[in-house]
């Protein structure tokens, strides 16, 4: 028996002998953990979701494991979000499984340039130069996730039309949750609107833009700042009365530690890739206001 016939017979067996009442799930792969929570909000138990970049790993340099490539080989949808590792791997995933549909959940979302040095996100948007890399961290903006959720629902409905009504109902519920989260974040951050948020990696541009904050990144184009730049950052931190530096577990904290020591600030871990998406944003918002007082 050749391998192709064996695969076909296995698939037929799986369908014919599916337990009564059981539902065949849609196999889905996503790049990062927050995406999984979005898909599960809409698909519920109708999907089996695999995350490529595990906790603690960097979405800039991650290389998938063989077990993950096997997941790719049977997936029906890959939801991309624009993180750096996708540039090297999406075409390989497509070659691995030509039948898999690759869906960009950021379609229709206006992106801002990735902060290379300290500027307001709005200023970046207005002074966007051709060729400047765009910030992929749209999942840190509830407003952007609202649109991303609609893109996810549409792809699920097209892949599994018999459950379209379920996806639509779940989307409506999720949209209400997003709106409530946005209202809560605005309420939490209202007293500290205009505060500076000093971060190691510039992940929080959309969050800062949406809630009237200023993001001041330490890292410059993926590299730790040199001595001259550190001196400038120290002056700016003191000017803005920065009391905390927000770092994420996926990146080195050496430069952040040196800077924090120089200005008498404390290190605060804020993970933009946390799977507990909404709770994480609320927690970060509270910490921002706590340290800005």
Give a short overview.
The chain has 293 residues and is α/β, with parallel strands linked by helices.
CATH architecture of the largest domain: 3-Layer(aba) Sandwich
Biggest β-sheet: strands ordered side by side in the sheet:
2-1-3-4
The average pLDDT value, as a whole number, equals 86
Which spans have pLDDT < 50 for at least 5 consecutive residues? 3-21, 117-131
Helix content: 40-55%
What is the CATH C level class of the largest domain, in words?
Alpha Beta
| Secondary-structure element string | HEHEHEHEHHHEHEHEHEH
Class per helix and strand makeup: alpha/beta
Oligomer: single chain
Described by the principal axes of the CA atoms, the overall outline is globular
Strand % is 5-15%
CATH superfamily of the largest domain, called what? Answer: Nitrogenase molybdenum iron protein domain
Give a description of the structure.
With 293 residues, the protein is of the alpha/beta class. Helices cover 48% and strands 12% of the residues. It has a four-stranded parallel β-sheet, sandwiched between helices. Helix 2 (33-43) crosses helix 6 (142-159), helix 2 packs across helix 7 (164-189) and helix 6 (142-159) runs antiparallel to helix 7 (164-189). It starts with a helix and ends with a helix. 37% of the residues are buried. Mean pLDDT is 86; it is low at 3-21 and 117-131.
Task: Give the helices and strands, then pairings.
Elements lengths: L2 H14 L9 E5 L2 H11 L3 E5 L14 H9 L2 E4 L4 H12 L4 E4 L16 H6 L15 H18 L4 H26 L6 E4 L5 H6 L3 E4 L9 H13 L4 E4 L6 H10 L2 E4 L7 H16 L1
């Amino acid at each position: 028996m050749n391998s192709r016939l064996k695969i076909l017979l296995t698939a037929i067996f799986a369908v014919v002998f599916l337990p009564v009442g059981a539902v065949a799930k849609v196999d889905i792969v996503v790049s990062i953990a927050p995406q999984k929570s979005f898909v599960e909000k809409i698909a519920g138990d109708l999907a089996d979701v695999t995350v490529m970049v595990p906790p603690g790993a960097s979405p800039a340099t991650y290389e998938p494991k063989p077990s993950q490539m096997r997941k790719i080989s049977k997936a029906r949808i890959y939801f991309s979000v624009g993180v750096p590792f996708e540039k090297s791997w999406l075409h390989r995933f497509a070659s691995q499984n030509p039948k898999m549909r690759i869906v960009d959940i950021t379609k229709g979302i206006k992106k801002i340039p990735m902060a290379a040095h300290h500027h307001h996100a709005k200023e970046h948007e207005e002074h966007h130069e051709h060729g400047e890399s765009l910030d992929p961290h749209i999942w840190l903006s509830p407003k952007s996730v609202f649109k991303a959720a609609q893109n996810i629902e549409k792809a699920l409905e097209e892949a599994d039309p018999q459950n379209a009504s379920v996806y639509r109902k779940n989307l409506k519920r999720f949209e209400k949750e997003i709106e409530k989260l946005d209202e809560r974040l605005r309420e939490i951050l209202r007293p500290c609107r205009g505060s500076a948020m000093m971060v190691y990696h510039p992940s929080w541009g959309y969050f800062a833009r949406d809630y009237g904050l200023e993001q001041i990144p330490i890292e410059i184009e993926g590299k730790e700042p040199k001595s001259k730049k550190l001196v400038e950052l120290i002056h700016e931190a003191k000017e803005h009365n920065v009391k905390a530096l927000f770092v994420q577990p996926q990146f080195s904290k050496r430069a952040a530690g040196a800077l924090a020591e120089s200005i008498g600030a404390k290190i605060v871990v804020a993970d933009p890739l946390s799977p507990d998406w909404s709770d994480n944003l609320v927690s970060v918002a509270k910490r921002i206001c706590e340290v800005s007082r």
